[in-house]
Amino acid sequence: MNTHYDYRYDTETLKVENLTKVYMSSMGKVVPLKNVSFSVNKGEFVSIVGPSGSGKSTLMNMLGALDRPTSGKVFINGIDIFTLNDSQLSTLRNNTIGFIFQSYNLINRTTVLKNVEFPGITGGMSDKDRRRRAIRILGFLGIRDKAKFKPTNLSGGQQQRVAIARALMNNPKIILADEPTGNLDTKTGEDVFGLLTMLSNKFSRTIIMVTHNPDLAARTDRAIHIRDGTIEKEVVNVEN
Ligand SMILES: Nc1ncnc2c1ncn2[C@@H]1O[C@H](COP(=O)(O)OP(=O)(O)OP(=O)(O)O)[C@@H](O)[C@H]1O
Ligand SMILES: [Mg+2]
Predict the structure, then answer these.
(1) Ligand 2 centroid from CA 109, angstroms
(2) Does 31 fall in a domain?
(3) Into how many domains does the chain fold?
(4) What is the pTM of this model?
């Protein structure tokens, strides 16, 4: 039974329309994404699966407004995001979207705490509130005792938790995770997946996760299969 359906109104949080990306390189034209369309509802946990090179990260980078498409649209809460200018786009990215990468992307020369605090700096929070919130999130993720460490002195799973904590700092409605368990052992990957599931179920966060792990994909609400830059099929996992 779907226990988290109560507060999952069928409100569309994210909508992708005919998204296409073309790269021109010295090797010629590459089209990693061709006319991709789908939408994701509030609180839904969607996985993106597909072979290496099929366009998953290209898609994620556009959902997260890290890159602009060649054509097509992305709507977030009804806003056509690529009509925004760069500064509006970075505000949207900072306040609405949390991005988690396979390689964590932490700043290694500073502490775990500062890494987590970082997105809060542009969020207008006072220094004290920011610190308090960062510590609370680290506690929530079970790594409060690592706050003063440098990221390189943590295990892979702990570093990925720091990246998740950083992604949660501004309380984003949408969490985009590109292979968040890709560098982790099975047990640690399971823990990270459990965290994302909880954020979806208990906190109604919209989650889109790229994974090469079919078992994890089968445990999300819906799996979007990408092949050669197009959607091959979508599988709704009714039992989840
Ligand atoms: N900046 C770029 N310039 C040219 N081609 C690119 C660029 N970025 C990505 N590509 C090409 O686009 C295609 C899709 O790449 P993408 O990173 O989206 O794949 P992916 O599905 O995430 O693969 P993986 O599972 O290995 O992470 C690849 O063929 C890649 O070489
Ligand atoms: Mg990728």
Answers:
(1) 26
(2) yes
(3) 1
(4) 0.92
- Measure 52 CA to ligand 2 centroid, in angstroms: 7
229 lines ligand 1 (CB under 6 A): no
Q: Does residue 71 form part of some domain?
A: yes
Q: Is residue 175 part of a domain?
A: yes
Tell me the average pLDDT of the chain: 92
**Which residue has its alpha carbon closest to ligand 1 atom 2?**
23
Give the CATH number for residue 53.
3.40.50.300
* Domain of 82, in residue numbers: 12-236
CA-proximal residue: ligand 1, atom 1 (nearest): 23
pLDDT in tens, 63-90: 999 999 999 999 998 899 999 999 999 9
Written in H, E and C, the secondary structure of the chain is CCCCCCCCCCCEEEEEEEEEEEEEECCEEEEEEEEEEEEEECCCEEEEECCCCCCHHHHHHHHCCCCCCCEEEEEECCEEHHHCCHHHHHHHHHHHEEEEECCCCCCCCCCHHHHHHHHHHCCCCCHHHHHHHHHHHHHHCCCHHHCCCCHHHCCHHHHHHHHHHHHHCCCCCEEEEECCCCCCCHHHHHHHHHHHHHHHHCCCCEEEEECCCHHHHCCCCEEEEEECCEEEEEEECCCC
Q: Is the CB of 58 under 6 A from ligand 1?
A: yes
Q: What is the reported pLDDT for 8?
A: 40
**Residue-level pLDDT at 139:** 93
pLDDT tens readout for residues 123-148 = 778 999 999 999 999 998 999 999 99
- Tell me if 81 is assigned to some domain: yes
Does 21 contact ligand 1 (Cβ within 6 A)? no
